[in-house]
Amino acid sequence: MSSKNPSNHQDTFLVKGMSCAACASSVESILKHTEGVNEAEVNFAQHQVKVSYQSQLSPEQLKEAVQSIGYDLDLDAKDKAKQARVNQQERYQKLKQQTLWSALFALPVFVMGMFFPEVPYGRYISALLVLPLLFIWGAHFFTNAWKQAKHGMATMDTLVAVSTGIAYGFSLFNTFFPEFWSASGLEAHVYYEAAAVIITFVSLGKTLEEKAKSATGKALEQLMDLQVKQVHRINSEEEEEEIPLEEIQKGDRLRVRPGESIPVDGTIEEGRSQINESMLSGESVPLSKEPGDAVFAGTLNQKGTLIISCEKPSDETVLAQIIRLVEEAQASKAPIQDLVNKIAGVFVPVVLGIALLTFAIWMFVGGNEAFAQALYTSIAVLVIACPCALGLATPTAIMVGVGKGAENNILIRDAESLELAPKVRHLVLDKTGTLTQSKARVLELIWEEDTEDYAAYLLSLESHSQHPLATAIVRHLKEAQVAPSSLEDFEILDGRGVKMTVPSGGFVASGNQKMLADFNLEPSPKHQAKAEEKAREGATVLYFFNKERILAQIIIGDPLKPGSKEAVKELQDLGLELHILSGDKEETTAFWAQELNIANYTAEVMPQDKGALIRELQAKGEKVAMVGDGINDSEALAQADLSIAMGHGSDIAIEAAKMTLMTSDLRSIAKAIRLSKLTVQGIRQNLFWAFIYNLIGIPIAAGVLYPFTGFLLDPMIAGAAMAFSSVSVVLNSLRLKSRKL
Predict the structure, then answer these.
(1) Averaged pLDDT for residues 272-299
(2) Using 50, 70 and 90 to split pLDDT, how confident is the model at 216?
(3) Are 393 and 690 contacting, i.e. CB atoms less than 8 angstroms apart?
(4) Ranges of H-type helices in 333-408
(5) Is the dihedral of CA 104, 109, 111, 112 positive or negative?
(6) Which among 46, 471, 515, 588 could bridge 496 via Cys, Cβ 3.0 to 4.6 Å?
(7) According to the model, what pLDDT value does residue 662 have?
(8) pLDDT for position 222
(9) Taking the C-alpha atoms of 122, 127, 128 and 133 in order, what is their torsion angle to the nearest 10 degrees?
């Protein structure tokens, strides 16, 4: 809870019962119109509402206001992010069960109604089967519609409730009182199958939407999992005690053993180690740390035991800051604007108005059969205006789009990313792991004259080391089919390199330039020039030597991924402006930007600052996409309008992103953009056909052709037309499967 004005409060609550963007608008609207509420902002994606309200108003009163329109607030949830995920899973499971039961009961009703209408007692069986379908598994449509109607609101629930309720009620009347129509020479039709299919199709659409969101929202939980729960503090008596992380204060001394995560941001007092900071920096090579060096919460201590002094407690660390930024970036996003539900808010009262108007006109002009024709035509209007095609327009296109993406190694996490991708004009690329391979490799192994015979010694030497650079050298030599030779007395020289004794006398060693100096060796001008050139590219330069001379110069780096240059060109051809973000030095980043022909780049970026560039571009009204693979990218991914994670990257980056490339090939980004454009095109076409169908069908159902042709649309034909409109929408969506990306 926080507030600038002491008489005001600001709280975030979980909202229960929201199923669409229109629901979010309803909750936001009722709260804003509650006396004492200053501001209310609903985040539909997270099912949360942030409310600023005056002190005389209690959370219980806010809960009552929301309950009055069919929703609820959870006032007791302590871990809101975790509870939101639990609620989401419960919603999905409940919808799945409702859809399954609805389909099981709807199938026999549909078969009897469409193909075997004369089955003995068929109408009575259908009436019985549709009863639980409507008023148990579809009951929420009716309860929500009633509560929203009391506040002058109309959503998809209203349309479903009215169309199915009227169809069922009318069918029930015709089942028990068929003589009412036969006396006027008309047939008493029933429309049980229409009511059953409407409930089933709309439930299916909501289930598909909920499933698309079911795997999201884990980013914060996984970030928090990096924070250790218990730490080893050294007290004033120099004794070690285990205490909760939250109790650590600035200045406390902590012991961190090999394999443990660093609990807080601090400085090493004692010990040396290799620290894997890839979860923050994205860089694959562990860093050598010694007394006086800074360490950060969430990073992994790989080798020695360390004593560190706490500089920033757990709630002030870089990791905690990233967690807060991810939280804020996710919460600041506007609710997903569901076009269908927005239009339904206008469409529903219009359809109801047309049905009533139709009834009134026919009562006036219908002559002896005025009531029968008035009821017939108004029912036809309501049945033909069924929301099936409208409800299926988006989920079917998304289903096919997501499937098409999976075939092309593109994992799409929600519909919002598909809608946003065509609007993106700026694409921000993290360098390490995105453009480059994020895996140390030997770029060059330059032997001196007649020294290549020492390759067996180099393999043996590096095989004894667990350092990632050594692993890269071993991999390179094994690929060249070098066999190891026998060496003795392996020795690690911290921060410099490794050394071993040759049985026949002497030694061989591998290390950096500092280690060369320790043994009174100096790189030649040729070595020095090569080292400076490769350093500008961000590579690491090592030397293999013995007592007398340098035997080889080893260049280890993180090369570009295959296809990176082609991918960049393809993305630029799509009209995207590319930006590189990197934690590397200015010189190194400039080299790669020039290599890839990318004009915009930012070097030496701290993890917590990566989102700043995104926000800067967004402030200019631009839609921005971000591609990354590390935990250090998660805040920027959450901030971006469209976030794309590399599948080989951290789970947290993947969970924070809306799209994940399950391949390292960056050319998949261009495919994802093209897929999004085709999917959005499909959604628009579906909505167009759904509305054209209503635009033509509703007037015909109302009887506009009767004065000219004597034609009145039978509600049964209206039901068939409704079914055809749904089929046409599904078929249009399926066309995407054959399109080439």
Answers:
(1) 78
(2) very low
(3) yes
(4) 339-365, 370-384, 388-407
(5) positive
(6) 515
(7) 67
(8) 60
(9) 130
CATH topology of domain 8-78: Alpha-Beta Plaits (3.30.70)
Q: Give the domain ranges of the chain.
A: 8-78, 229-313, 337-409+674-741, 410-436+561-664, 441-557
Q: Is the pTM of this model over 0.85?
A: no
Confidence at residue 722, expressed as pLDDT on a 0 to 100 scale = 65
Give the pLDDT band of residue 501 (cuts 50, 70, 90): very high
Architecture of domain 229-313: Distorted Sandwich (2.70)
Distance CA 545, CA 737 (A): 59
Cβ neighbour number for residue 319 with a 10 Å cutoff: 28
Q: Which residue has the higher pLDDT, 392 or 290?
A: 290
CATH architecture of 441-557: 3-Layer(aba) Sandwich (3.40)
In angstroms, the CA 691 to CA 295 distance is: 60
Lowest mean pLDDT among 75-79, 112-116, 138-142, 503-507: 75-79
Contact 55, 9 (CB under 8 A): yes
Q: Which residues pair with 556 in a beta bridge?
A: 442, 540
Buried b (16+ CB within 10 A) or exposed e, 540-553: bbbbbbbeeebbbb
Q: What DSSP line would sit under 539-550, residue for residue?
A: -EEEEEEESS-E
Superfamily of structural domain 410-436+561-664: HAD superfamily/HAD-like (3.40.50.1000)
80 or 410, higher pLDDT:
410
Integer Cα distance of 600 and 594 in angstroms: 10
Question: For every residue of 263-322, which 3-state class applies, written as one string?
Answer: CCEEEEEECCEEEECHHHHCCCCCEEECCCCEECCCCEECCCCEEEEEEECCCCCHHHHH
Rg of the Cα trace of the chain? 34
CA angle in degrees (0–180, nearest 5) for 166-172-174: 100
Locate 21 and state its tokens: 């963007």
Q: d(Cα 448, Cα 553) in Å, to the nearest integer?
A: 8
| Distance of alpha carbon 697 from alpha carbon 380, whole angstroms | 9
Mean pLDDT across 175-187: 80
Q: Point out the residues that are catalytic.
A: 430
